[in-house]
Amino acid sequence: MTAVLVTMPHSHYAEKARWALDWLAMPYREEPHVPLLHRLTTKRHGGGSVPVLLHGGRCLVDSTDILVHADAQCGGDRLYPADPSLRRDVDALEERFDTVLGVHTRRWAYAQLLPDRRRLRAMMLRGVPRLEALLLPLMMPLVVPAVRAAFRITPESTERSRQRVRAEFDALDALLADGRRFLVGARFSAADLTFAALASPALLPPQCGAPYPGLDEVPAAMRDEALHLRGTAAGRFALRLYAEQRLNRP
Ligand SMILES: N[C@@H](CCC(=O)N[C@@H](CS)C(=O)NCC(=O)O)C(=O)O
Questions:
Q1: pTM for the whole structure
Q2: Which domains are delineated in the chain?
């Protein structure tokens, strides 16, 4: 049975799951929703946030669980190494990127893009059901404050998040300083994928599977920060992963 990936098109955690399914060549259909209305679907399946994966009678309601499930379905030892010590390293990095990097890139990017409602709407609309697309313009006065409240976006928290993203990139620069091609072991893993996907709102990689604007379309502060991050070892690493490993992208 073909899997169904419930998303919001612009969510970077959804991009993490989408990239994994594409990379593993696991057959799936994406079911994108607009913010707020996504909960009508995710709640029905025992979740809340996106992504949610429905497959073979199972509902996976967290991106890491989705990657683990997809890896196992595709024979295992692909995104998660079978070797227990490598696996521990992958799990630890993935958890760190999920709980720190992803949270701060999201706040930073939303803070830059929320004022441009036209662009925001365009990002949120890709592939959603027609009725939701028609409703979104009417819902924007609810969606924008809901996003600000949910992610506690203020000028101060935005600046803190910019610095946290830089600190996470610095930490990765240190890890990459020995010249390694992948974060753990000799192969691409869930750790690499998670770093690049969750960094994507701050880097805006051209191959990203989320419908982000191009560098020349975003406010100057966002462009300048993206250019700074792209110039770091961690930024170059994420861009290389997108160029080399983002297979079958939408
Ligand atoms: N731990 C979750 C986090 C996912 C997450 O934060 N998703 C956000 C979008 S980037 C979301 O759906 N927020 C709205 C909500 O929680 O209803 C995962 O890895 O799947």
A1: 0.97
A2: 3-73 (3.40.30.10), 84-245 (1.20.1050)
